[in-house]
Specification:
Largest sheet: 8 strands, parallel, barrel
Catalytic activity: D-ribulose 5-phosphate + formaldehyde = D-arabino-hex-3-ulose 6-phosphate
Organism: Methanoculleus bourgensis (strain ATCC 43281 / DSM 3045 / OCM 15 / MS2)
Strand content: 15-25%
GO molecular function: 3-dehydro-L-gulonate-6-phosphate decarboxylase activity; hexulose-6-phosphate synthase activity; orotidine-5'-phosphate decarboxylase activity
Distance between the termini: 50 Å
Protein name: 3-hexulose-6-phosphate synthase
Domain Orotidine 5'-phosphate decarboxylase: 5-206
Oligomer: single chain
Structural class: alpha/beta
Length: 429
């Protein structure tokens, strides 16, 4: 391999979509085509056979993640048309040895996937001694969501083995380039190619990047900055999807229509339109925060209005969420400031000072704690537990990518039911 190899991972469920996407990826410069584990589990060895027939001039990789019966599973993949079979690096040595023997018999090669291996350097040396052809420095998607990095794993392996090293796990054009500069000979890209609306363009960007590898200096970004950047790029529906349909408030709407607020929660508990604590909370907030106000759900009297909104905006607060009513709606709409409430009412209460600031509250059916993350847009308001914010932000971005590809296929003429093969995937009872 004089030049780096680009392997596109088809981690899809539908073989027809996989072939279509693979064709577009090949036009963008993909070399090897991987029948991803989800595709194999969904379609069986027919996935490998179909890809072999559709792409006679390309290497077909079967990501079997073999953990047992190494000889049988390698034989299955080889006879179906795979040239490379992926096994789990942490499988027992007897499984590895049998897989290698079967590969030699059927003229295919073995790639060992280091996903979840505790001592990857030592294990890679052992795998090389057992006859494995490639090592895959792979951090799985669920590990990526909490900060795992395939590039970090790759750097640990550089120079430790003499067989080619592949790298997989959340790579895009920029990180793929860095991976080649760090020693990878095979770059495996999944979601950032196959979920793109323009698959050919995405593959071409990766192809061009790995053909001119470089390590770019990176500016350090704080965890909060990363979370905010990711959440600002996704929608409230993306976030609830990432949380398995959880976290959404009920009965609340955007007062100013198409606006968005993303930030950490400063919580307020008040009663019956008492606006003292909501206004005092402005001083407790820092730029980028969202005020979340529990007003016991009453909508007949407002704890918030235009003057408070103006004050909050000056403070750098990015949004207001009220389990209750808001008034001075015309002035707030003129400001275009993100205010979300259960309703409107012209009546104002009295600043009596009942309640608390920065305590756990219940707001529109959701528990909110100080420091939890809020994503609010015209679709509604979602609460993300602070300890899972980075993970959920990453998962929401993956949801958005998936939707981008589906949207493109609908634009080309398919219905949503056809794209997702609803009848096939309806739950059986």
């Amino acid at each position: 391999m004089a030049t780096p190899t680009l392997q596109v991972a088809l981690d899809l469920l539908e073989i027809d979509r996989a072939v279509e996407i693979a064709e577009e990826a090949v036009r963008g410069g993909a070399d090897w085509i991987e029948a991803g584990t989800p595709l194999i589990k969904s379609e069986g060895m027919q996935a490998v056979r179909t890809l072999r027939k559709a792409f006679p001039g390309h290497e077909i990789v079967a990501d079997m993640k073999v953990a047992d019966t190494g000889a049988v599973e390698v034989e299955m993949a080889a006879k179906s048309g795979a040239g490379i079979v992926c096994i789990l690096a942490d499988a027992d040595d007897t499984v590895i040895a049998e897989a290698v023997r079967s590969a030699r018999k059927y003229g295919v090669r073995i790639m060992a996937d280091l996903i979840n291996v505790q001592d990857p350097v030592s294990r890679s040396r052992e795998l090389e001694a057992l006859g494995v052809d490639y090592i895959n420095a792979h951090v799985g998607i669920d590990q990526q969501m909490i900060g795992g990095s395939s590039l970090d794993l790759l750097r640990r392996l550089a120079g430790e083995v003499s067989i080619p090293i592949a790298v997989a796990g959340g790579l895009d054009a920029e990180t793929a380039s860095e991976a080649v500069a760090a020693g990878a000979l095979i770059v495996i890209v999944g979601g950032n190619i196959v979920k793109a609306a323009d698959v050919t363009g995405a593959a071409r960007r990766v192809r061009e990047a790995i053909d001119r590898p470089e390590i770019r200096p990176r500016e350090e970004e704080s965890p909060d900055a990363t979370i905010r950047r990711l959440l600002e790029a996704v929608s409230a529906p993306n976030v609830t999807d990432a949380m398995h349909r959880k976290g959404a408030m009920t009965g609340i709407v955007s007062i100013c229509g198409r606006v968005k607020a993303v930030g950490r929660a400063v919580t307020v508990r008040t009663i019956a339109g008492d606006w003292a604590k909501p206004v005092e909370a402005i001083n407790a907030a820092v730029p980028g925060d969202v005020l979340v106000i529990s007003n016991d759900g009453g909508t007949h009297i407002a704890p918030w209005g235009e003057l408070a909104t103006h004050s909050a905006r000056n403070r750098g607060i990015v949004g207001i969420v009220i389990d209750g009513a808001v008034r001075d709606v015309d002035d707030i709409r003129e400001m275009g400031f993100p205010v979300f409430a259960r309703g409107t009412a012209p009546n104002a209460g009295e600043p009596k000072g009942f309640g608390e600031i920065n305590t756990e509250i219940l707001c529109c059916g959701q528990e909110v704690r100080p420091g939890d993350w809020i994503v609010a847009d015209e679709s509604g308001v979602v609460v993300i537990p602070r300890e899972r914010a980075y993970e959920i932000a990453r998962r929401a971005m993956e949801v958005k990518k998936t939707e981008e590809r589906i949207r493109e296929e609908i634009r080309r003429g398919k219905t949503l039911s056809e794209v997702t093969e609803l009848l096939k995937w309806e739950k059986r009872h």
